[in-house]
Amino acid sequence: MKRKLVAAIGIAGMMVSIAACGDSDGKSGGSDAKELTVWLTVDAQNNWPALVKAADDAVIKKHPGLKIKHEYYGWPDKNTKLDAVLATDKAPDVVEMGNSEMLGYMVKGAFAPVDTAKFDNSAQWLDGLKTSVTYEGKTYGVPYYAGGRVATWRKDVAEAAGVKATPKTYKELTAALDKIQKKEGDKFNAWYQPTRDWYAAMSFVYDAGGSIAKEEGGQWKANLSSAESLKGLTAYKKVVDDYMHGDKTKDESDRYIVYGQGKSGMIFGAAWEGATSADPKNDKTGKLKDNLESFVMPGPSGKNIPVFLGGSDLAIPVKSTKQDLAAEWINALTGPQGQKGLMAKGNLPNNKTDLATLKKDPATEVPATAAESNWFVPMAPGWGQVEKAQILQTMLQEIGTGKKSVEAAAKDADTAIDKVINTK
Length: 424
Description:
alpha/beta, D-Maltodextrin-Binding Protein, domain 2
């Protein structure tokens, strides 16, 4: 998953934002293994180096003399470097992956399967993260931490329109947004919702009981034309029609910057976006810091809307010669103590047990509650081609701009998806 290095939970903001060449000392990774190489992203280097050191210390204690080498990479260049090294016999022993990056590597056989029984809390892994490391019935990675999505709005704008309570239902939300839109006028976005934001749009699809694609008899088939998916897409179109008065060809990449310009009442996105927009560098109004409020996004179904659950996983390249030792290190970082430390740094945990504890804390209740209902992309061999072709984004832009009806755009998207989704 491509992410910012800063994550924020609620208006207070919980700020957040692992390396290479394995030696050939035996795949079992016993005491004769002299060096373990771990690739992580700069998130760990910058924000929780003590947690990485604690994992190192725990493994070295069991394997005296072991050296653990870390290499840190930024998200934009990590996979290019990984692809290059995986083509050699110098594969890292552990590598951090965005959870949406896992599938393509699992399909290619780049990662070694792991025994979930060796990892603490594996029976309680969050559904979306568990899905991200599972392919054709086998597990190829370990969830590291998660990041969810929440709704964030300006309390001052809501109050000026006569809205005094945070919406708990979708009916309450749309009623409040109607008042805000009327008060602020047509040049204001009561809800700034970039049309091409497929993460948000598919939340409406899954909320309505639909899906992007379904597996039938070992084959995947696109499902956006189903009655349930069309219902969700229609609800999404109404949001864009009623409350989004900006450029309807935009995606969500600069949403936090646009929100900081002060011409929008609400956004629905990654938990860090609200607080990042309130950073003095982005807040052009000077009012966001004290006026933002995050809440669990209600869905038209009457339940909390399912959110795309982003996050990171840790995997073991199949060419690693120290796979057992690598698994020990991963468990040391992602086990109970590691999760406690990751949560303290503003991350959501990889498991339901720890997530439940966050729901009890007012500072983390909203993102933790929102993450309970989640969805993930179809774990189909050709999903990467679907993303590369931007089929969903194209469909949504056609719907949002009125170029095509919901039904026609969904049908065309299904046809395009079906051409590639089962192709390795």
